[in-house]
Amino acid sequence: MTTESVESKCREMRKLIFAQAYAAKGAHMGAAFSVTDILGTLYFGGVLRYRPDDPWWEDRDRLILSKGHAGVALYAALALAGYFDADYLKTFCQPGSSLGGHPKIREVPGVEASTGALGHGLSFGIGIAYANKADNRQSHTYVILGDGECQEGSIWEGALSAPTLGLDNLTVVVDHNKLQAMDALETIVQMKPFADKLSVWQGDITRLAVGAIVNAANSQMLGCFVPMHTCIDNCIHTFAGIELREECCRYMNRRKAEYGSDYEEPTGGAVLTAGYNLPAEHVIHTVGPIVHSRLTDALRSDLASCYRSVLQCCVENGIRSVAFCCISTGVFRFPNEEAANIAVDTVTDFLRRHGDCFDRVIFNVFGDKDKEIYQGLFAR
Fold it and tell me: Which one, 52, 87, 121, 234, has least CB within 10 Å?
């Protein structure tokens, strides 16, 4: 079908949703209208494989409407798809009708799961997808979640289980209408970063084409002067080219003219420069804390300040993607696991308030140990 044909079907669905609600003297209209375009695209946009004349065809694709209170929208789609006559929709929520307020499997042709108690649809879909994969079937499973429903802990358990099981035959669609029963979504529980704005990447940070990469600088801000040293400071200056060191030198000369010849860049700040020969547009330099003898709360606070300052620098300069190195680990001797905890907690907290300002925040790791630590934190 063409886009125009799908849009036409969606308009018909909305009329049928209204007709059901009118006949029953009530329905969850907002939730139903919100999900109409999603259902219309799946059923009439050439996505779902189904046979209305054979609802239990073994190789059919499965669709689970986890937000079951929007069942009138699913009934409208099923009627237009040919599972039953559209006139039957007038019996919605009437005595003796199989079209209840929430859809039930086996009672309505085309309904794949009984839903309504929020939070269960994804786990149900994972079970179906896992079984189909074990049986080597080509069937694909689609699960539609409400955004408020995503506050349920079982949703996040399912989100962690699906990739663990390798379910490439499962697709989850979130109806992100930003509203739930009692108020706006963000008023009840803040869901930012809602999409996948956080990621872990193992490799060379100087290869990333992002808005900015973060350099764990020293307080002299002139790069590392140890030839062939493998620290991140040396690598970034090497691949950016001499222009980066020149810009840092000009910056430090201005600071020394203002604050005295002994000036050193303080811990926990952020300095923005160009990226020069790097794929990244900018480099944000931050001086991390050095652990000399024992780890203190002041050092923990300084490390958190590094992450906040970098993110604030991004917001102020319109930088929407940033890659962090592991600040203060290595020669600065900050324990890897605690540093990662501070990094993830600080960034997550910042994104709750400024998530709309970012498309992607990357935690870049080089060694397997740090990769395992960050992946463990993401899975908690």
Answer: 87
Identify the weakest region by mean pLDDT among 47-51, 208-212, 276-280, 328-332: 328-332
Amino acid type, 287: V
**Alpha-carbon distance 248 to 271, whole Å?**
9
What is the token pair recorded at 155?
A: 């949703």
CA 86, CA 12: separation in Å to the nearest integer?
11
Pairwise CA distance, residues 9 & 3, whole Å? 10
Check if the beta carbon of residue 314 is closer than 8 Å to that of residue 359. Answer: no
Radius of gyration of the chain (CA): 27
Tokens describing residue 188: 């009840």
- Range 113-149 burial, b when 16+ CB lie within 10 A, else e: bbbbebbbbbbbbbebbbebbeeeeebbbbbbbbbbb
Predicted pLDDT at 271 = 97
What is the pLDDT averaged over residues 6-18?
Answer: 96
Reported as a single tens digit per residue, the pLDDT across 282-325 is 999 999 999 998 999 999 999 999 999 999 999 999 999 999 99
DSSP code string of 167-199: -TTEEEEEE--SB-SSSBHHHHS---S-SS-EE
Is 198:352 a contact under the CB 8 Å cutoff?
no
Query: 189 exposed, middle or buried (CB, 10 Å; 0-12, 13-18, 19+)?
Result: exposed
Q: Strand pairing partners for 282?
A: 212, 274
Would you give the DSSP letter of residue 283?
E
Domains of the chain, CATH where assigned? 3-185 (3.40.50.970), 198-379 (3.40.220.10)
Element (H, E) at 237: helix 232-240
Tens digit of each residue's pLDDT (9 = 90 or more) over 215-239: 999 999 998 888 777 789 999 999 9
Other C-beta atoms closer than 10 Å to the C-beta of 174 total 19
